[in-house]
């Protein structure tokens, strides 16, 4: 199977050279209520796993590094179906399973 190293710089290089990648992560209750900003798990029980498309990365004006991801739930969820998750800290295991 084709896998990418969990190092954030390797993930960024893969996206830059070949386009979006698929990632999986642990979903907690607070993720269902995400609307905007950089998601960080704060509260709630584990609900299971979820796979999404990682399409890019960036840094907020406040200096917080994030991944930009596309969710498939629907466009009324999150930020028009997209969300940002903290980058470089393996938030919710997001950097462990990259294909």
From TrEMBL:
InterPro entries: Papain-like_cys_pep_sf, Pept_his_AS, Peptidase_C1A, Peptidase_C1A_C. Pfam families: Peptidase_C1. Residues 1-99 form the Peptidase C1A papain C-terminal domain. GO terms for biological process: proteolysis. GO terms for molecular function: cysteine-type peptidase activity. SMART domains: Pept_C1 (SM00645). It comes from the Eukaryota. Belongs to the peptidase C1 family. PANTHER family: CYSTEINE PROTEASE FAMILY C1-RELATED. This is Cathepsin B. It comes from Avicennia marina subsp. marina.
């Amino acid at each position: 199977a084709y896998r990418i190293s969990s190092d954030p710089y390797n993930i960024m290089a893969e996206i830059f050279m070949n386009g979006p990648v698929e990632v999986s992560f642990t979903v907690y209750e607070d993720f269902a209520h995400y609307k905007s900003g950089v998601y960080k798990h704060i509260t709630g029980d584990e609900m299971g796993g979820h796979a999404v498309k990682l399409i890019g990365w960036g840094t907020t004006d406040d200096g917080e590094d994030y991944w930009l991801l596309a969710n498939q739930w629907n466009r009324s969820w999150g930020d028009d179906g997209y969300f940002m998750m903290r980058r470089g800290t393996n938030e919710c295991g997001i950097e462990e399973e990259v294909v």
